[in-house]
Specification:
Distance between the termini: 24 Å
Mean pLDDT: 95
Order of helices and strands: EHEHEHEHHEHHEHEEE
CATH class: Alpha Beta
Strand content: 15-25%
Number of helices: 8
Strand order of the largest sheet: 3-2-4-5-1-8-9
CATH topology: Rossmann fold
Length: 219
Amino acid sequence: MRVYLSSFRLGDHPERLVDLARGRRRAIVVANAIDGEGAAERAAWVGAEIAALAGVGLADTELDLRDHFADPRPARLAAKLAGVGVVWLRGGNVFLLRYALARSGADTALRRLLAADALVYAGYSAGPCVLAPSLRGLEAFDDAGAVQAVHGAAPVWTGLGVLDYAIVPHVDSPDHPESAACGQVAARYQADGVPHRTLRDGEALVMDGDETEVLSRGR
């Protein structure tokens, strides 16, 4: 399994993401964490993600999971992702992202593709957060009610369970507006014995097979 989990944006080590792709330069952006935004703003932010990935040599386009809500077949999504080197899950609201993954069948497809080491799972903020066993606690910095507001449905509280611990981004990152709230979540997890790892903006957690490391900020 190969993952590149950044706290914010590409982080300080995008070259490691490119290395993980093993020469496969095609990437797909999943931006459903920002489905609560207006169409024009959402499109601009998706464009910014595509431009950032192009800047490190990854040619990509968007996969909007909403297009698969009416026909949620994991095999169909897996076929769309065949040959893709990197799937990049943008930050935003973790509950909107998790709902879209579940409603479209992408959660099942991605778990299978990761198990087969068929692509790199990468992203930041909400993207890493959905890999945990549970999303409980993350409502302290993301609005779980956004799922009802945007989709008229209840949020999904289980994570993908790809990791056996939670990722808490933006900790000790004073330039990020959610840093204090994220720090409080990490402290609550620590007090309650919830397995977790924290990331500062600039850092990224990288998994390549049996090897896991956190790439330090600015180094």
